[in-house]
Design goal:
This protein has 264 residues and is of the alpha+beta class. The chain contains ten helices and eleven strands. The strands form three sheets. The protein has a four-stranded antiparallel β-sheet. Strands 5-10-7-8 form a four-stranded antiparallel β-sheet. Strand 1 and strand 2 form a beta hairpin.
């Protein structure tokens, strides 16, 4: 019986082959094993057990860290994936931290990832020819944000994605979605639903921008992002609504007056 385990040496990583209680390096002849690891088989057995316990401990630690991650919880509770399915598709996921005010994506390059916000807050926006910003989306915790034209059609990015707060994201490539769709029928159904839900929200927002009053747009924003009023500057909300900050201030004042009920 043989197995291959990673062993860490000074300055490099090598692989060890464990066979019938003896340990051999992949780069050395098996006959020289006793000169490398000592003459006693017992020592090799002890080393083998030590490495097995070390590797099992690392695997348990990595699994525990994964299960405590917000994206793992999201996939399990919202997308309906099983623990085994999540572990099979999540091994190669990368994470990144973005400080407040820094860009996660800029106009120009091709975007290779969708981003899932585990902590913090992002926004996507475009710039017109005069340099004016137009906010397209906000992404708080448990939201996805992506330049779809760039990710799915290899177009150069036309938008910027910026951290409004210190933010932690999961970088999700096309391979993850392909594997998750193949592995989990529940995720496949969820992914289809979330795509159509995104289209539905974009259609609704377009209709609001074309024909709704500033007040109706603002109330729709509160419905969409109920927890962001104190986290997002007023000028960014105004940009998202397609109105001036002054108009937003007037709308908020009028709504406050409508809902004010003097005490008797």
């Amino acid at each position: 019986m043989s197995a291959m385990l990673p062993a860490f040496t000074e300055g490099e990583v090598e692989f060890l082959i464990i066979e019938n209680g003896l340990v051999f390096t992949t780069s050395e002849n098996k006959k020289s094993a006793t000169s490398i690891f000592g003459k006693e088989v017992a020592l090799c057995e002890e080393y083998r057990n030590f490495k097995i316990q070390e590797i099992l401990g690392n695997m348990i630690s990595e699994k525990s860290q994964l299960e405590s991650a917000p994206f793992y919880t999201y996939l399990k509770k919202t997308a309906g994936m099983s623990d085994d399915e999540i572990l099979r598709v999540s091994a190669d996921l990368k994470r990144s931290k973005i400080e407040k005010g820094n860009l996660l994506l800029a106009k120009g390059p091709i975007c290779n990832y969708s981003f899932f916000v585990e902590k913090g807050l992002l926004r996507s926006y475009t710039l017109d020819e005069s340099g004016k910003e137009h906010v397209m989306q906000f992404a708080p915790e448990n939201w996805f944000i992506v330049d779809r034209s760039s990710v799915y059609f290899n177009d150069v990015s036309e938008s910027y994605i910026e951290a409004i707060e210190d933010t932690e994201v999961v970088l999700i490539g096309e391979d993850f979605f392909n594997k998750a769709n193949e592995t989990s029928p529940a995720f496949r159904k969820f992914n289809d639903k979330i795509l159509h839900n995104h289209i539905r929200h974009m259609q609704k927002r377009l209709n609001l921008l074309l024909g709704a009053t500033a007040e109706v747009r603002y109330l729709s924003f509160i419905e969409m992002y109920p927890d962001l009023l104190l986290r997002v500057p007023q000028w960014m909300i105004a940009s998202y609504l397609g109105i001036t900050p002054e108009s937003l201030s007037r709308v908020r004042k009028e709504l406050a007056q409508k809902n004010f009920r003097p005490s008797s």
